[in-house]
Amino acid sequence: MPFIESFQPGDFLSTIVSLVVAFAMGTLIGAERQYRQRTAGLRTNVLVAIGACQFVDMAMHLAGPEGAVRVVAYVVSGIGFLGAGVIMKEGTNIRGLNTAATLWCSAAVGACAGADLVAQSVLLTGFVLAGNTMLRPLVGALERLPRSEESTEATYGVSLITGASRAAELRSKVSALLEAAKFPIEEVEIQDRPDGTAELRATLVNTSVRVVELDGAVARLRHLPGVTSADWTRSAAD
User: Fold this and answer.
1) Bigger pLDDT: 211 vs 120
2) Domains of the chain
């Protein structure tokens, strides 16, 4: 029988060791995630770790290290689709990025175990746990630090009101003035208003700015012919 002919006790023992290590390390990572009630908890992290382990281990036995390297590349890209499933956007807030990154690391832990890099698998597990636990106080401390608007990235919008007949002409002038002031523009929209005027709204690329410089640029926009008012707004970056 093909199974009996291909069965190698040494290879089978190696697979057992790899899976046990991947299971144990995935359990450690998943337990921390489960304790914090994250979307991907204990079982998900364990399954990701042992799945990646078995794919790499199988490639090692069938095609050697070169085959394992190819499978690892597919694991790295494939786990991204699973991670994307736990990322959720709620308004301007994005949740699940850390959980997705943890799943990615769980796959790396399993891949190391499958490639018989047991010590590296254990070491990586330690770093993942440290990142998810020991860094939490530092994150909290940084979040509590006072910060100015100029030190944080945000989405800035510059809007001005003009006559509908002059909107297209002013569009290029607005873009040129903001670009000259070193404010990169993502897009400029024109919206007609019921009173016969039009609003030009320039959305700047997510960046941090000096409010004084932006105030100066908007002041110059107010002096353009045909402009009745100009102002800017700020919203948190996605």
Assistant:
1) 120
2) 2-144 (no CATH), 150-236 (3.30.70.260)
The pLDDT-based confidence of 11 (bands split at 50, 70, 90) is: confident
pTM (predicted TM-score): 0.59
Indicate the length of the chain as a whole number.
238
Residue 172 pLDDT:
84
Residue 51 identity:
G
